[in-house]
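// run 5 | inverse folding | seed 20
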């Protein structure tokens, strides 16, 4: 499965043509997974109720999964500490959880957020080539 980060969905919904949005357009909907944390990030940023309803309905096309539970929470804390020990510190807890969810479950991540590069370089996060 491919998890699409909010950084890509936000550009998609705002009509921006970026390499990540173009990569998204090439992917089959059947391969995409929307996580609860990503859905929250996207939906909280919409400006109107109508946009909210459209985005909410749009996300029903994809497989859905909860991204954090006890196992992922512990693994994410371990990953954060492992990166910090290497001299790099993730900036966002949510990105740490998303990356850990993907690594733990063998999912690829499509993103346009440099914060995930730490996880790719040091912890084996697999990303969609753009």
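// decoded
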């Amino acid at each position: 499965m491919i998890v699409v980060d909010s950084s890509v969905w936000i550009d998609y919904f705002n009509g921006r043509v970026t390499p990540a949005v173009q990569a998204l357009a090439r992917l089959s909907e059947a391969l995409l997974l929307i996580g609860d944390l990503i859905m929250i990030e996207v939906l909280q940023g919409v400006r109107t109720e109508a946009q909210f309803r459209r985005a909410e309905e749009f996300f029903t096309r994809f497989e859905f999964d909860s991204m954090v539970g006890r196992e992922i929470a512990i693994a994410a804390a371990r990953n954060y500490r492992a990166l910090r020990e290497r001299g790099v510190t993730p900036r966002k807890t949510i990105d740490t959880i998303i990356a850990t969810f993907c690594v733990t479950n063998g999912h690829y991540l499509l993103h346009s957020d440099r914060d995930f590069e730490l996880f790719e370089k040091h912890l084996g996060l697999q990303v969609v080539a753009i």
